[in-house]
Design a protein that fits this description.
Blueprint: H1 2-30, H2 36-55, H3 72-94, E1 99-113, E2 118-131, E3 137-151, E4 154-162, H4 171-174
Antiparallel strand pairs: 1-2, 2-3, 3-4
């Protein structure tokens, strides 16, 4: 009888272990990294947004984007940010500082599937602006957490949680766009 109880106990323990392993595998698969094709699409979408912002510094216009976010609230916040960038550009221009070129690169640090249709990515932005009269490059890097949502066959940006100042505004203005963690 003791051997029978031991056998049942051992069988139950093995079953429990298998259940735990399968559960961990399912959770890992659900939260697994995104595939290479999706990473490329996401990187391009994020890079376009950040280049559009930086392009304001070399244009005489305000460069209003075609609503880069899904949410109206985030588009209004983005519009306000772009207007402030254009205002800062105009102030710099009055003091003789203008820019002639930009270069922006995006490095995906990490990504996490929140669900099958929502992804959170942490990225590092590196943007360089060329000062017109000296051809000197100046720049900044900043980390962002970008939330994206699957929209048909592509990913659309839901929100840009700026984790550091992006360098396109005076620091005192920039602070209000930083995500408070």
């Amino acid at each position: 009888m003791k051997k029978y109880k031991r056998f049942v106990f051992l069988f139950l323990m093995i079953g429990l272990l298998v259940l735990v392993i399968v559960s961990v595998a399912v959770i890992y698969k659900h939260n697994s990294d995104i595939n290479k094709k999706e990473k490329a699409v996401i990187s391009n979408e994020i890079e376009r947004l950040l280049k559009d912002r930086a392009s304001i510094m070399i244009s005489d216009e305000q460069i209003v984007s075609e609503s880069p976010f899904i949410s109206k609230k985030e588009n209004l916040k983005e519009k306000e940010l772009r207007e402030q960038i254009a205002q800062f550009r105009d102030e710099l221009k009055k003091s003789g500082e203008t820019y002639s070129a930009i270069k922006t690169a995006v490095n995906l640090i990490s990504s996490k599937k929140i669900s099958d249709s929502i992804i959170s990515t942490k990225i590092k932005e590196e943007t360089y602006l060329t000062i017109s009269n000296t051809d000197t490059a100046t720049g900044y890097d900043a980390e962002h957490e970008i939330i994206l949502k699957k929209h048909k066959d592509t990913w659309k940006i839901v929100e840009d949680k700026q984790l550091e100042p992006i360098g396109l505004l005076p620091l005192n203005e920039e602070k209000k766009y930083i995500e408070k963690v």
